[in-house]
Amino acid sequence: MMLWTAQEAQQATGGALRGDWSVNGVSIDTRTLAPGDLFVALKAARDGHDFVVQALKNGAGAALVSRVPDGVAADAPLLIVPDVQAGLEALGRAARARTNARVVAVTGSVGKTSTKEMLATMLQDQGKTHAAVASYNNHWGVPLTLARMPRDTEFAVIEVGMNHPGEIAPLAQQARPHVAMVTTVAAVHLEAFDDIDGIAREKAAILSGLEPGGVAVLNADIETAPTLAAVAKDGGVSTHWFGTCSETHKLLSVEAQGDSTRAEVLIDGQAHELTIQSLGAHFAMNALGALACVAALGADLDRAVASLALWSPVKGRGARLELPWKGGVLTVLDDSYNANPTSVGAALSVLAAAPTRGRKIAVLGDMKELGPDEVAMHQALARHEAVPHIDQIFGVGPLMRALDDALADGKRGTSWQNASDAISALPAQLEPGDTLLIKGSLSVGLGKLVDALRDMSDAPATFKNNHP
Fold first, then answer.
1. β-strand partners of 409
2. 382 and 407 in contact (C-beta within 8 Å)?
């Protein structure tokens, strides 16, 4: 289906047209651009204008630019705007304005992407659903997601993130959600905030984008719940609380059963039994919040619970891989995309509960952007309740040396300076039957370790419990 005509895009952005064109999608990367996409020449690590010629050669239907790059034909299909980022945001606002979709926006220190994917899985069985891909949740990811939204969308799921104060409110105001969810608030990006209350206030800024009569879905179990409540009250926002402390959206019980997590929850006073195709009490809590969003959107809860059973984590977000290894099987819990004290603790609990015939091993990379207490936060992981149930912990990066020093001798594995060193040394130490957790901040590069283990395995990996 046609996404944008030249005239619609021109009207949205106020830009100058070259040619009469239409596009089926929106792309910012020539490597993933599909024929018929509008190529948006953003300036990021590199200037997207340097790739316009290649994009058009690859079949782009048009390009959104602020100048005509050298080598571009005089009759090339273009939309010329003063600022490409502002032009993308204008497209996103126009796409949001022309749809009748019910929109939910998700933010939080931990669990944004998993919760967004849960919501997309549940809602797509009840109507045409549009959701952010990967972790497109920043100043370009949110407007790009909106600009890609088809006009006949019935449900939309927008992920909203931040690194610094003042980032969330403008993105929420672009998304204009009917439901806004805060998964949790944790010690993440503390180097940019005075304290965790500051993080909570920034997360609560997502409520500023709510449509009239919109609903906030908030975590009742966290220490900053009063801060979230105060922001909601000041904004006159209706709040739905979820967690073990909530009376309306309540987690009653959660337990591991084999490779799955089973939970019993109350949603608006009605009991439901959940099956999640992955281990982790944190997934059950995210699912509870997601179901509270489904209820607030007016969708069918019973159908959503059934659809949830088809969801499983994606690569880098807790996905479980089974690799043929030295005549047996090596199980890898790939949580390599991000790390902070809360999410690492949750991942260690998953590893401790995992059924295995061999050892339970964790490879933990540095947790970044934690501020002046970063060393103490790495050391504190040695006291986590899951550590006694884990056989060995390896560290990757200079900050993880603090954890290495705090571990008892029997738990301490090798400490490596970087992911390349881990790739060189770790595989020889792994045996069939082992279960290996790999988790660290994205910049540590532990995703490369996952890829290396897959390449070294006896045969291609299988993803356990992934739905088609």
1. none
2. yes
Whether residue 13 is predicted with pLDDT greater than 50 in this model: the reply is yes
CATH number, domain 99-308: 3.40.1190.10
For 164-201, how does the pLDDT look when each residue is reduced to its tens digit (9 = 90+)? 889 999 999 999 999 999 999 987 666 767 788 999 99
Distance CA 158, CA 138 (A): 11
Residue with tokens 């995992």: 354
The binding site comprises 108-114
Cα→Cα distances 226→35, 194, 357, 391, Å: 49, 18, 44, 39
pLDDT value of residue 340: 85
H/E stretch holding 411: none
Residue whose C-alpha is closest to residue 280's, from 335, 356, 329, 357: 335
Query: Which amino acid is residue 363, in one-letter code?
Result: V
169 touches 209 (CB < 8 A) = yes
Asked if the 4-83 domain carries CATH number 3.40.190.10, the reply is no
The CA angle 139-142-146, to the nearest 5 degrees, is: 140
Could you give the CA distance from residue 82 to residue 370 in angstroms, rounded to a whole number? Answer: 37
pLDDT digits (tens, 9 = 90+) for 335-354: 888 888 888 988 898 898 88
Residue 59 is predicted with a pLDDT of: 96
State how far the Cα of 174 lies from the Cα of 238, in Å rounded to an integer.
20
Kindly list the domain boundaries of the chain, sorted by start residue.
Answer: 4-83, 99-308, 319-463
**What pLDDT is stored for residue 246 in this prediction?**
94
Q: Is 140 helix (H, G, I), strand (E, B) or coil?
A: coil
Domain 319-463 has CATH 2.102.10.10: no
Q: Integer distance in angstroms from the first to the last C-alpha of the chain?
A: 24
Number of C-beta neighbours around residue 85 at 10 A: 16
Q: Which residues are annotated as a binding site for ATP?
A: 108-114
Tokens standing for residue 331? 């199980």
State the pLDDT at residue 313.
Answer: 77
Check if 4-83 and 319-463 are the same fold.
no
Q: Sign of dihedral through CA atoms 51, 57, 61, 66?
A: positive
Give the pair of three-digit tokens for residue 446: 């532990």
How much is the pTM? Answer: 0.78
Do residues 330 and 405 touch, judged by C-beta distance below 8 A? no
